[in-house]
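User: Last request for today: this protein with fe (ii) ion, please.
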Amino acid sequence: MYHCLCRGASSLRSGSSSKVFAPQELHRQVTHSMPQEKIEIFKSLERWAEEEILPFLKTVEKSWQPQDFLPEPSSEGFYEEIRELRARANELPDDYLVCLVGDMITEEALPTYQTMLNTLDGVRDETGASLTSWARWTRAWTAEENRHGDLLNKYLYLTGRVNMRAIETTIQYLIGSGMVSAHSRSLVFLGFLI
Ligand SMILES: [Fe+2]
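Assistant: Here's the final one, the structure of the complex with fe (ii) ion:
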């Protein structure tokens, strides 16, 4: 799918040969029902997660931000910085850009991943601001991840080398489609404990 998103690819320039894939909807409701004993095990690990997992999260103050790597829009040299960025980007092979676009689209579907984590029994952030270890980790992980898509999106936009509208359309399809986990009950263990 991603190969058609680079401006270097002829299929996009023509516009006529790109296929549009409609979102696949599932018409059955899955109610998560991890066995009670597993929920109890997971809840008993709250303190462990607090002490062993949460410390891995970097503070906001120690985290890089997308703007650290991008031209500063308030500076007088903004346009010159963009010219330099574009000159460097012009040297990049299409293959590199395709990889960046694929990564960026994946990163930008972050709402889907947070939703997935919040469907897991024992992890679910019931209020949206729950103070359980798992909920705090999920929110902080999402916030940390959000920087990746932001940086890639802005960088690729500034290069002028990719078809942003096609990318944005793909992201909208991707988030709108959601993601189904075939093993949602055990994913809580696979995702956090194994
Ligand atoms: Fe990421």
